[in-house]
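Protein modeling request. Please complete all fields; requests missing the sequence field cannot be processed.
Requester role: graduate student
Desired output: 3D structure, token encoding
Chains: 1
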Amino acid sequence: MALNKAALPDANRNLEQLYEEFVTRARALGTEVYRVPNLAKARELVGKLVQEMGVRKVALAESPLVTALDPAAAVGGAGAEVTGGNPRERAEAADLGISSFEMAIAETGTLVQDATEINRRLVSMLPPAHLALVSTNQLVGTLQEAINNLAARGQIPGYLAFVSGPSRTADIERVLTIGVHGPGKVVVIFIDEGGDAGE
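Delivered output (199 residues):
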């Protein structure tokens, strides 16, 4: 259902502007961006994307949002399975990693993750595709706002990951290659209601 922006309060109108800016910046970097109204729709979308991408094995980085989403049910319904065992082996064997992010920065199309826990890093870097979950209300305008928000929580995490699109590198001749040092495909799902699970 389309939102009537004229009827939204200023704060929500600002959120809509931030979202549109994020989408523009992120898509320019090769990121796929989706937005859903709630966890049920997010679960449905995850299943659809897993099926479309031909994913067979999925690695998860546990978090309150990932748990609330119940991705195992979503991917199972799409014919895939959640891998188990050693975290590194699990991530290396997966076609898709799923993890949650603390914030999104509109001005650069960047996701921000507290990656102190190593499994979050493995899941977001080793599989060839990564699906990022983020609460729509955690959109901020600038990098400075993101840092201020993290500082306001009491302590900035010891390991922060900033993700701006698929992994890319270029050689001395400026030949761009995607997916060498991380996933070649990044998909972001913004969740309006329930995306702040566990916060």
